[in-house]
Amino acid sequence: MATTPTFVEQPPLEGSLRMWGTLVVSAATFMNVLDSSIANVSLPAIAGDLGVSANQGTWVITSFAVANAISVPLTGWLSQRFGQVRLFIGSVLLFVLSSWMCGLAPNMTTLIAFRAFQGFVAGPMIPLSQSLLLASYPKALAGLAMAMWSMTVLIAPVVGPLLGGWITDNISWPWIFFINIPVGLLAATGIWSIFRKRENETHKLPIDVVGLTALVVWVGSLQIMLDKGKELDWFHSTFIVTLAVTAVLGFVFFLIWELTEEHPVVDLSLFRVRNFWAGTVSISIAYGVFFGTVVLLPLWLQEFMGYTATDAGMVLAPVGLFALILSPFVGKGLGRYDARLFATFSFIVFALVMWMRSLFNTQADFGTIMVPTIIQGVAMAFFFIPLTTVTLSGLPQQRIPSASGLTNFVRITAGSFGVSITTTLWENRAAVHHAHLAEAVTNGSQAVRSTLAGLEAAGMSPQQALDMINRLTTQQAFMLGANDLFYLSAVIFLLLIPLIWLTRPHRGDGGAGAAAGAH
Predict the structure, then answer these.
(1) Half-sphere exposure in the Cβ direction for 220 (13 Å, CA)
(2) Maximum distance among all alpha carbons in the chain?
(3) Distance of alpha carbon 423 from its chain centroid, rounded?
(4) Domain count, the chain
(5) Which DSSP letter does residue 398 get?
(6) Do 302 and 44 meet the contact criterion of CB atoms below 8 Å apart?
(7) Mean pLDDT by 10-residue block, N- to C-terminus, for the chain (519 residues)?
(8) Is there a domain that residue 218 lies in?
(9) Residue 33 shares a structural domain with residue 139
(10) What pLDDT does 315 receive?
């Protein structure tokens, strides 16, 4: 197991200094989390402006997520090498620089590269924001520190789609990145002025270069395979087969190396703990399913339902409403009730939400589409904190940072995989439904003849009328494809419930430890 970092114990901040410290750290965290969701509703505009398909545009999200996942496990080593405060400020400033580069990107390839860079430099910001806040408050107020942090993490995903949609519709998509520049510069200045004298000791520690390289190779290969698979006809492509073999061999080598390395970049021995592996697997699969549908919904609304980016953002925004209201009560309840009950309730509500969405049709109005989103906020409130409590329960304090980093790595990676798998399956299911629907569109069909007659009577030429029927068929096919995926998501959430109950019961472990893994 890797050596646990040792930091100089700092006295807590007092009065207004603590308030301002919380604000500037939270601002940096807010900017980071915002960028993981703000691009979702802007994907069609970005893809259209840069001349690629919306499916290729999902790389804007996945490149950020994968690079972010790779850099998260390095936080402990980097903070010992450069210092927590210097690393945090460096990450914020590099995030500002990468945001500026993203906004200026002339094509999709460049934008994806800059987003990957942005995701990589963002990695240390979340763990370090938690660490700096906890050190700023007395131990008795650690729960309050993490409550402040959790509120930031819950608000950002609510604001992201709404802000992203408004900026895309009223200004232009590059400004979803440019807005990070003033926020980041102000946050970095405030953090330096308040925390510069609270730096920890630095040590020159060895880094597991081989393990890190293997990590980058297998995660990167698997992600590219998932994103390019449909476009290149999956395993009929030599390129995809090569990526698949590289991913499998890289993963096997990574496992063997990390389990035998004295200073592993990822402490895989944590998976010997039942609560950790069961909790990590359940939270990661659930998050992958959730995040995939978060991307699918605005894509469907904008491409096939005629919604603007702002309207699509309005549909997604209420997801945090109940999460904000209920989270404090969930945190208090964890001290009295079994966290597994809360997590089970969350998965049942998620399943209900996905089932409701599986009943959508092309006539669904704004209110019908928004209702499941509002209910989803209830599931969110009972999802992160209870499951993280279960995952980290029973671990000694010195292993919590490694455990939190590892479970976040698996979860973030699962989220990026969820996006790739969801968009690919959606197109595949839509193609199947389109073929079935097209079989019914024949000249011998009374419904087809009457529809064509009605369209021609409205002034369309015969070819225009046929094109209109084809568009309606395509719209219906993608609607049915989305229905299939929402229904499958509901089933997956229900199937995950027994996994939660493989863990051992643990009460009274909420608070800071739980919140620390919530992002």
Answers:
(1) 12
(2) 82
(3) 15
(4) 2
(5) G
(6) yes
(7) 49 76 84 78 82 76 78 76 85 94 89 91 83 72 59 69 80 88 91 79 75 86 74 82 93 91 80 90 92 85 82 76 74 76 93 94 87 88 80 69 74 80 88 82 65 71 73 87 94 94 66 42
(8) no
(9) yes
(10) 80
Residue 396 φ/ψ, nearest 5 degrees: -65, 150
Are the C-beta atoms of 59 and 419 separated by less than 8 Å?
no
Give me the sign of the Cα torsion angle 507, 492, 64, 307: negative
**Which residue's structure tokens are 């904190």?**
385
In angstroms, the CA 287 to CA 418 distance is 8
> What domain range is 34 assigned to?
1-207
DSSP 85-111: HHHHHHHHHHHHHHHHHHHH--SHHHH
Q: What is the CA radius of gyration of the chain?
A: 24
Distance, first Cα to last Cα, the chain: 25
Q: Is 220 domain-assigned? A: no
Euclidean distance between CA atoms 194 and 376, whole angstroms: 38
Residue 95 lies in a domain: yes
What pTM value is reported for the model? 0.77
- Give just the sign of the alpha carbon dihedral 47, 50, 56, 58: negative
Give the DSSP letter string of 250-293.
HHHHHHHHHHH-SS-SS-GGGGGSHHHHHHHHHHHHHHHHHHHH
